[in-house]
Design goal:
Length: 143
């Protein structure tokens, strides 16, 4: 029975992806600024037609990804010849509760900063973009 449910879910997922070809996936790999062994993958899903974005994070060594929902995204103007700075904040949804938030700052194609704030203890963890780590849609971050 589990096999049939898995197969049905797979077919529905495949059908859903085929029905929405505008969905794109971007992957970014990060390391902790203070805790270098702390590594996470951020996957951002976008549908330009539906004007929707969602994301997930997956910490290295953990099996389950954590869902993120967009809280807000804002663009700061820059001088005429410079790309704008975009700040996006996602709420972390873990086991049905909002448990924290991730803030990503980008400047054009450059990733400036990622930070995580836990709502349980207000601890903030800073990450840097690990541009030397390869990311693929099928394997994620290849540490």
């Amino acid at each position: 029975m589990k096999c049939n449910i898995f197969f049905a879910t797979f077919l529905l997922s495949f059908h859903s992806l085929a029905a929405y070809p505008a969905v794109t996936v971007e992957g970014l790999c990060f390391r902790g600024v203070k805790e270098r062994a702390l590594r996470l993958e951020l996957r951002i899903f976008s549908d330009s037609e539906a004007k929707w974005r969602g994301a997930l994070v997956k910490y290295n060594g953990r099996d389950k990804p954590i869902s993120l929902v967009t809280r807000y995204s804002e663009e700061s103007s820059s001088p005429v010849d410079m790309p704008s700075t975009i700040t996006t904040v996602w709420l972390e949804i873990y086991e049905g509760a909002i448990t924290g938030e991730y803030e990503l700052m980008t400047h054009g194609a450059s990733v400036d900063a990622l930070s995580y704030r836990s709502f349980a203890n207000s601890k903030i963890t800073h990450f840097f973009h690990d541009s030397n780590t390869t990311w693929t849609a099928t394997q994620g971050c290849i540490w």
